[in-house]
Amino acid sequence: MAQRDPWMNTTSNRKNVRSTAVLLLLILCAAGSIAAELTPNEASTMQAKVVIKNTITFVPTGPEYRITHASGAVHWYPRDTWLEDVNSMQVTPKAVRQDESMHFVWMNPASQEQIIIDSTITTKGVIVPIHKKIAFPFKDVPSPFQPYLTSTKIIEITPEIRKLSQELAAGKEDANQVVFSFAEWTNKNINYSLSSLGQPASKTSSQVLLTKEGKCDELTALFIALNRAAGIPARFVGGYAYTNDPQFEESWGGHGWAEVWFPDQGWIPYDVTYGEYGYLDAGHIPMMYSADASTNSVEYQAKGNDFELQTSPLDISISNVQLSGEKPELVLVELDAPKKQIGFGSTVMLIATIKNLQKYYVPARVSAARVIGTTPIGESQKTVLLGPGETKKVYFLATIEKNLAPGYKYTYPFAVKSSFGNEATTDVVAQSHFAKYDLSSYAELIDQLTPKQQSGSVQILCDEISPVYLGNISEQTCTIIGAKNIPSTTSACAETCQTVQVQKNTFQIKTKSEQAGISTKRYQSKIGEERINYFVTTHGVVTPKINVSITNPESAVPDDVIYADAQLLPQNSFPKNLKANLRVRNSETTESLDLLERPEKLSFAIPGRALRPGDNEIELIITYEDELGMAYESRFTSKIQLTDVGIVDRILFGIEDAGVAILQLFKDTFS
């Protein structure tokens, strides 16, 4: 993982030797300077100017070059959220904010058009306060959050990911602890890679798990997949973030993190790259929210003849950064050493005590400084999740040099610092005549302070269930892993128990789909003398419903190109493979959507010459499927008048209509 080593050497050789300690906090991934003594990690607020620019160019490719209509959708821009306020925003040209995007339209555009979004924002570096346990697993996930439970292109939920998710969640009944365990595992076990910095996520979550390597958005994809596998909705957040890591040429750059949904709490931020769980420092600027980690930042469409559309990446600049206000004291940190007088070559054990001073959960990261003449053993950073008012202890280990001069007294000023700025120190003195301690001297303390893995050697892993219509019964195959003696029958218990037959190492659980969407239950079965907890997921499908409204001008003239907009709103589920076909007499236009998971607006161009004098009916035919592939069709109508029709237009219309009639007669005759 790309980081600064928080242990750092210096030198000294006096009679009474006092080693010096230097501690560096690490900030990872992202990529301008900040005119203040505070850093975004320490500040409570940050104000900045954010300017986003993008240019679209139309290049002629033939003699009939013409652009009648162009549209763009920018998905990356500052948002008003609990942790970010948009103080001002000037958008050129004017845009319509809809469906989490800014939509732009140009009629008869120039050869080059530019979008500028000029904002001033204020971000807050505070913890989202969660005052109580969040019961896990979730009994119900409302419909708006269902898209954040499914497998996507980048955020895959494979059997290996579900197995790891279940292992990490084993024995935990508080979602705060479950999500914290996912974040810590990802932060500690996946190496941060700079190989494809600046490019969208290309590795899937399963590839990241396999290679144990990825950049910030890919690490985040794995973290999100672990949550979704446990029935916890999670989404991807794209934005800009500040870093002081020397590996990056710029202090500000694109970054990806996650938000996790908790009942009665809403979306909670988790940046597994920076090690910020349940909070973000003020140097994070959210700009985009998505169900997957590969969403485009900007998209364009254009209609015309003989042209090529050329675009470029978003140009984002951060300036006029002002930091203010140190964070309140969230935790109290104390440092002690069980053995403060040691012989040369001894192992030193440091115990840091962290107390939560708040009435809500606080995740605290503690870093130990490297002292001259010492070599660290194991981790030099540890993160703990503290419940309201809770106290926890963590330990650090180091060895001191053994080839020191007899007759000298060596004083080692060990220090730790929390991610919130708290520092604590303690001195350890070494002399040749003091007792020597090795790692075994602290074995009992290490055992007491080492978090116990709650999952046993035996696991039960159930396959991902296929979707079924609401109220139907389905069977799910579950596999027993790691058991030496497998019974021929066992019970599978949730609210009620069912007896299941075990064949080799698998059994079938019958589940009834009782609610729409994906839901997760914890089951328990006895294998030998062990009671094994595991997850079973159901996926209920309902008949999808779409609310559709059509807006179009009341009238048009023959030379116009007018636009009909169809607003689509999913009502109770998420239709897929949607096709919207708009017909006006002999003119027909089709738009498609792979999945309708939120309100969408579709625009259809209608040439005025496709209309006829008087009233014209606009018909919108929408076909779509549910999650099981069942097809549906809905029809909607509107009207538009063609006015100001001259004698020449009427003659041309008559000729066109006659030609269409003859062509249709020919088709009917010879078909």
What is the topology?
Elements lengths: L15 E3 L2 E2 L20 E18 L5 E9 L9 E9 L3 E3 L2 E7 L4 E13 L34 H11 L5 H15 L1 E2 L12 H7 L1 E2 L1 H14 L4 E9 L9 E11 L3 E6 L4 E2 L6 E7 L7 E8 L1 E5 L3 E12 L4 E6 L4 E2 L4 E10 L5 E7 L1 E2 L2 E4 L3 E6 L4 E10 L8 E10 L4 E8 L12 H7 L9 E4 L5 E2 L3 E9 L7 E5 L3 E5 L4 E7 L4 E11 L2 E12 L4 E6 L3 E2 L4 E10 L5 E9 L2 E9 L4 E8 L6 E12 L5 E12 L4 H24 L1
Parallel strand pairs: 1-27, 9-10, 20-28, 30-36, 38-44
Antiparallel strand pairs: 2-23, 3-8, 3-17, 3-18, 4-7, 4-16, 5-8, 6-7, 11-12, 11-15, 12-13, 13-14, 19-21, 21-26, 22-25, 22-27, 24-26, 27-28, 29-31, 31-34, 32-33, 35-36, 37-39, 39-42, 40-41, 40-43, 43-44
CATH class of the largest domain: Alpha Beta
Strand content: over 45%
**Tally of extended strands?**
44
How many distinct domains? Answer: 4
- Mean pLDDT reading: 86
- CATH T-level fold name of the largest domain: C8orf32 fold
Q: Structural class, please?
A: mainly beta
CA radius of gyration: 31 Å
Number of separate helices = 6
Shape: globular
Query: Alpha-carbon distance between the termini?
Result: 67 Å
Largest sheet: 6 strands, mixed
Unreliable residue stretches: 1-36
Helix content: 10-25%
CATH architecture assignment of the largest domain? Roll
